[in-house]
């Protein structure tokens, strides 16, 4: 069960990176298009949206890294409850559920 949780954490982190890169590319295209047409307002709005989307897409990556390290170092189920709930909400639904239902024997 520990391996399955790790797999779903990694998949979620990869999805976050793909989302981050997509937002970044779309934002760069938007800024370039706004700058080429001479419309500074469009370029400013596009840059703002890019920054916001980038931070939102990085949340699963950050939470996933923390959860993965905690999953590697934990020896008791009680050490995973808090990060399991955070993972459930912000990273991966399946990995969070797996972390919450794991037994101590699964962590050895």
Write out key terms for the chains shown.
single chain; rod-shaped; mainly alpha; 108 residues
How would you classify the helix and strand content by structural class?
Answer: mainly alpha
Radius of gyration: 18 Å
Low-pLDDT runs of 5+ residues are: none
Percentage of β-strand residues = under 5%
Number of helices: 4
Instruction: Output mean pLDDT.
Output: 85
Shape: rod-shaped
For the biggest sheet, the summary is: none
Distance between the termini: 11 Å
| Number of strand segments | 0
Q: What level of helicity do the residues show?
A: over 70%
Topology as a string of helices (H) and strands (E): HHHH
Number of domains: 1
Verbal overview:
- The chain has one domain (2-102).
- 82% of the residues lie in helices and 0% in strands.
- It has helices at residues 2-37, 40-73, 81-90, 93-101.
- Helix 1 (2-37) runs antiparallel to helix 2 (40-73), helix 2 runs antiparallel to helix 3 (81-90) and helix 3 (81-90) runs antiparallel to helix 4 (93-101).
- The radius of gyration is 18 Å and the shape is rod-shaped.
- The model has no long low-confidence stretch (mean pLDDT 85).
